[in-house]
Structures are given as structure tokens and as C-alpha cells.
């Protein structure tokens, strides 16, 4: 089993702590929409790119924890990869935490092997996390949002409230068969359809916003394209 150590910041109402956290298991949950109409829209969106329908919804892909990164840039082979904003869950120090990340994926590989495509690209996450119990009471109002740089302009790419996604307890129960996430596990928990369709960009910004408590977690990264030489 691979492990990844990242310097993370944990922000609570009582204060802020920081430390190097070992993440032993990374899971990408796919097709996690609570709204079946929106879920079907995202499935069709991917079908247009040649991606087959999932065998089940939701579905859980294992990804090497070494793919996780907090760096301001990633490298991707070819120009067919793109990001997608997701809320992430982290089981750490006996507590469940909430953050935000980007399930950056190679879209060409995705057309013939979704599981393989999830392993092809680094998975950026923001360094800041909130305790789940501090947002559980207003969970559905949390917002996910992403922007891309397109033709030199910053463009809204994805946006939606977490009311449209399966709740953490539901996702975790489905993944663990009714149990809890193991210590050191990080889970990406699904995304929203892209405005204008899925497409690559040289820069991707992503955020989760808590309007109730007046706070947000933001991050972004550049995508450096490596050449395909045959």
C-alpha cells in the first residue's frame, strides 16, 4: 500500500492546527448525484466523449495515494485531461474532515478504461479542512464551484449545492458496507456537470463555500502539458 504525506491545515471554531498527515488510501466515488436528472445529464455528458455508462451508481475507484498533491501545478500527458471540483472527506485523528479537491482525469483514456484514467493524473486537493460535525447541520447549503482559464479569461466551469450530491454518511456506508472510513482514508465524492461541456484548460480553480459560517476553501493549479511522441 502506498502512502502520501501532505502538510494540511485543520480549521475549527476553536482554532487552527497544522501538521503532516499520512494518507494511506485514496478513493474516487463516481456518479454520486442525489438528483437523478442531474446525474443522467452528467452520464450523457461523458457518453458524448465516448465514456461508457457506469456499472453501478455510485461506483468507487481506488487510486494510488501517491497521486495526491497540494502543488500549484501538475503535469499531464497530452492535452485531453481536465479537472472537476469535488468535496473530499478525510478520516484523520479519529475525526471526519471536509475539504475540496479536483479529480483531474485523462479524458482519452477514460473512453476505454475509467479505472485506468483515474490513475493517470495527479489529484490536487486544497490544504485546508473543516470538521464535518461543524457543517453537518447545514450540509446541503454548501456550494462547490470551479473556474477555468479559457482564451485568457476566467470562466465559470461548474457550480452546485451539495444538496445535489449524496450525503457523506450515505456514501461512506455504501463504500464500507455500513462501516466507517479507515484512519488515513481520503475520498473524492463526486462532481457536477460542466457548463459548456467537459474540456481542457491551462488552469483550474476550485472551491467549497460555507455561506452559513461565512468561510470558504479555495485552491487552483496550472496544467503543464507533456508531449505525446508516439
Order of helix and strand elements from N to C terminus: EEEHEEEEEEEHHEEHEEHEEE
For the termini, the CA-CA separation is 32 Å
- Biggest pleated-sheet summary: 8 strands, mixed
Backbone shape: globular
Provide mean pLDDT, rounded.
Answer: 93
Number of strands: 17
Low-confidence stretches: none
Here the CATH topology equals Fumarylacetoacetate hydrolase, domain 2
Q: What percent of residues adopt helix (DSSP H or I)?
A: 10-25%
CATH class: Alpha Beta
Strand content: 35-45%
Number of domains: 1
Give the CATH superfamily: Fumarylacetoacetase-like, C-terminal domain
Specify the number of helices. Answer: 5
- Order of the strands making up the biggest sheet: 2-1-12-9-8-15-3-4
> How much is the radius of gyration in Å?
17 Å
Structural class: alpha+beta
**Quaternary structure annotation:** single chain
Q: Please give the CATH architecture.
A: Alpha-Beta Complex
Protein name: DUF2848 domain-containing protein
InterPro entries: DUF2848 (IPR021269), Fumarylacetoacetase_C_sf (IPR036663)
GO molecular function, one term: catalytic activity
Amino acid at each position: 500500500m502506498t502512502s502520501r504525506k501532505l502538510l494540511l491545515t485543520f480549521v475549527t471554531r476553536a482554532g487552527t492546527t497544522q501538521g503532516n498527515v499520512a494518507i494511506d488510501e485514496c478513493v474516487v466515488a463516481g456518479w454520486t448525484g442525489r438528483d437523478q436528472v442531474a446525474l443522467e445529464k452528467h452520464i450523457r455528458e461523458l457518453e458524448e466523449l465516448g465514456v461508457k455508462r457506469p456499472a453501478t451508481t455510485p461506483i468507487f475507484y481506488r487510486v494510488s495515494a501517491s497521486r495526491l498533491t497540494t502543488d500549484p501545478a501538475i503535469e499531464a500527458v497530452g492535452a485531453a485531461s481536465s479537472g472537476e471540483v469535488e468535496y473530499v472527506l478525510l478520516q484523520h485523528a479519529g475525526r471526519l474532515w471536509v475539504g475540496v479537491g479536483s479529480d483531474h482525469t485523462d479524458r482519452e483514456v477514460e473512453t476505454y478504461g475509467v479505472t485506468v484514467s483515474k490513475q493517470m493524473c495527479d489529484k490536487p486537493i486544497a490544504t485546508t479542512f473543516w470538521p464535518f460535525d461543524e457543517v453537518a447541520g447545514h450540509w446541503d447549503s454548501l456550494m462547490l464551484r470551479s473556474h477555468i482559464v479559457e482564451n485568457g479569461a476566467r470562466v465559470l466551469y461548474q457550480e452546485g449545492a451539495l444538496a445535489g450530491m449524496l450525503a457523506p454518511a450515505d456514501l461512506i456506508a455504501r463504500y464500507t458496507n455500513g462501516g466507517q472510513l479507515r484512519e488515513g482514508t481520503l475520498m473524492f465524492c463526486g462532481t457536477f456537470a460542466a457548463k459548456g461541456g467537459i474540456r481542457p484548460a491551462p488552469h483550474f480553480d476550485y472551491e467549497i463555500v460555507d455561506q452559513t459560517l461565512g468561510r470558504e476553501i479555495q485552491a487552483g493549479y496550472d496544467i503543464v502539458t507533456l508531449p505525446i511522441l508516439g
